[in-house]
Predict the 3D structure of the following.
Amino acid sequence: MRLKGKIAIVTGAGQGIGAATARKFAREGAAVAVCDLNADAVNAVVGACRESRTEAMGVAVDIADRQAVHDMVGQVLERFGRIDILVNNAGITRDARLQKMTPEQFEQVIDVNLRGVFHTTQAVVDCMVEQQAGVILNASSVVGIYGNYGQSNYAASKFGVIGFTKTWSRELGPKGIRVNAVAPGFIDTPILATIPDEVLEKMRSQVPLRRLGQPEEIANIYAFLASDEASYINGAVIEASGGMTL
């Protein structure tokens, strides 16, 4: 088990990639703090993690709320005494073309996808610096590398996450903390549930592998990056898109 004895926080862990990551970490031996807005989803994922005979705790938290984030981190430290891994996975979309996007749509996405990552990382970093060890993993997107029609807010937030990753890897690397990002392409998660079948088929056709990615495939990347097998990877942005941007 690659993460045996590690303590991990996964945000946005109630569904999709976050839930798959929490379950994967548990199977790899980590104790997992499952964090999400949806308390029922949190409880379900905690139960799934415990099936791997590892410890897990759940916290319903809005990562856009700075005080709530600090309270959550305090609960994790009180329970486990340390934090080894942070996966900043939580994110939302509020799509609209530039001319139609409201300030509320823009701010909602920036609050969660960018400010939330800042709040959560800042809340755990002192602990990791004191330990002289830790791994921070940030969820970017291929949209954060190449942009996308109708996603000015989302693209800006995911570009920003890459900026965080590059900067923090420089600041924290000398303190024994690695910081990396993953940039998924089209992944089969609940966020796609409202997309018409014909649009999904067009999305698949853009991928050389001719399919959408699975949440577990992204979770596998996070597990590798969190492990000692990735001990010399720092400041990287790993694209996992089935080759759609070739």
